[in-house]
Amino acid sequence: MKATFTLGRIAGVRIGVHWSVLVIFGLIAFGLAAGRLPEAHPDRAWVAYALAGLITAVVFFASLLAHELAHAVVARRNGVPVDDIVLWLLGGATRMRAEAPNPGAELRISGVGPLVSLALGAAFTLLTLVLVATAGSDLVAESVAWLAAINILLAVFNAIPAAPLDGGRLLRAYLWWRTGDRLRATAGASKAGRVFGWVLVGLGLWGFVWAASFGALWLSLIGWFLVVAATEEERQARLRELLSGVPVRETMTPDPVTVPSGLTVDRFLSDPDYTDRFRHSAFPVTGEGEKALGLVTRQRAERVAAPAHRRTTLGEIMLPLAEARTARPGDALAELLPRLEPGADQRVLVVEGERLVGIVSPSDVSRTVRWLSAHRGEQGEQGDGGRGGGTGPTAP
């Protein structure tokens, strides 16, 4: 899930927001302002309801951000780099560059999120009791009570042992510790996630058909997301297992075609070398001595207004190296997978010191996966002595 825009950084972690947040934000604010608050405390000005609804929705997303920040901070303390946090329609996601190094780290990283939500729920509950005891504003007390309930619900739901929920990762940590096999542990947690997801889909459809509840469709949507995410998580785990021990240098395209930072947009878009001979969608941008500076795409160049083509350089419009995805030749390819996404801007620049030595795209990884699958399949057939083919990659 890519962020539509970035809010900034907190504790060194980039915070992004996907446009779909506006949907759930509007539903929460409207639901409180037009439903729960006037039903519980009628005869107030509509402005008071609207203001209370908006502020409560903002605090809810701040609580959700605190949940994700806890994951990010603990992950970094356990040696797991974090790309960013993205808030979206169904909550939040902390994107990490690598897997937890051991079951204990997995337990700490996954468990802290629900604990933070539970602590927030307890704090809001205490604040509600204080407001009621001191005859504080009824609308404020009602809003805080809602925040208490939703944070406790968030903690309980996330603790359910089904991937990709936090509870699913806790289950994986336990299975990993019990079996010593991370792939089997991931498969077990993913299976639990798919089963739980299908249960939610069924309950949601039943509620819609038999109770005519449109809200039940939301439950089905969450369930379907869990099924898809759990399946993808297991697929990624098997890919990492297959690519285990393969360094980035064996997959990257070495010495890629580059563009100088001083090249103008006009020359870039009209030069046959870039438009016809090299039909790439993205080019690394370099300075003197092949120093890596960033990445530029044809789409970025084409977004520049035509009158500015002659005076705008690629160095001015490129994605800077600090924001681009980078790796070193000796890095493990398996650890690069979480950072590989579709889109020309998502190419991984391979640097050695400050010098660009290669580039990695999803198609490069796909080529390596196909080769390894075929190669290991042949080894499996030979090892089986003709008994019907290999069993595919297995964990050590």
Structure write-up:
This protein is an alpha/beta fold. It has twelve helices and twelve strands. The strands form three sheets. A four-stranded mixed β-sheet has the order 1-2-3-4. Strands 5-12-11-10 form a four-stranded mixed β-sheet. A hairpin with a 5-residue loop joins strand 7 and strand 8 (292-297). Helix 5 (166-179) packs antiparallel against helix 6 and helix 6 (182-211) runs antiparallel to helix 7. 34% of the residues are buried. The model is unreliable at 380-396 (pLDDT under 50).
Keywords for this entry:
alpha/beta, four-stranded mixed β-sheet, 396 residues, globular, disordered C terminus
Summary?
With 396 residues, the protein is an alpha/beta fold. The protein has twelve helices and twelve strands.
List the helices and strands and how they pair.
Blueprint: E1 5-10, E2 13-17, H1 21-40, H2 46-77, E3 82-88, E4 91-96, H3 103-133, H4 138-158, H5 166-179, H6 182-211, H7 216-242, E5 253-254, E6 259-260, H8 265-270, H9 272-277, E7 282-286, E8 292-297, H10 298-302, H11 314-317, E9 319-320, E10 325-327, E11 348-352, E12 355-360, H12 362-384
Parallel strand pairs: 2-3, 6-7, 10-11
Antiparallel strand pairs: 1-2, 3-4, 5-12, 7-8, 8-9, 11-12
Query: Helix fraction?
Result: 55-70%
Q: Please work out how many helical segments DSSP would assign.
A: 12
Content of β-strand: 5-15%
Mean pLDDT: 87
Low-confidence stretches: 380-396
Work out the number of β strands.
Answer: 12
Largest sheet, strands/sense/barrel: 4 strands, mixed
Q: Which strand order do you get reading across the main beta sheet?
A: 1-2-3-4
Q: For the CA atoms, what is the radius of gyration? A: 25 Å
H/E order of the elements?
EEHHEEHHHHHEEHHEEHHEEEEH
Structural class: alpha/beta
Task: State the distance separating the first and last CA atoms.
Answer: 32 Å
Tell me the overall shape. globular
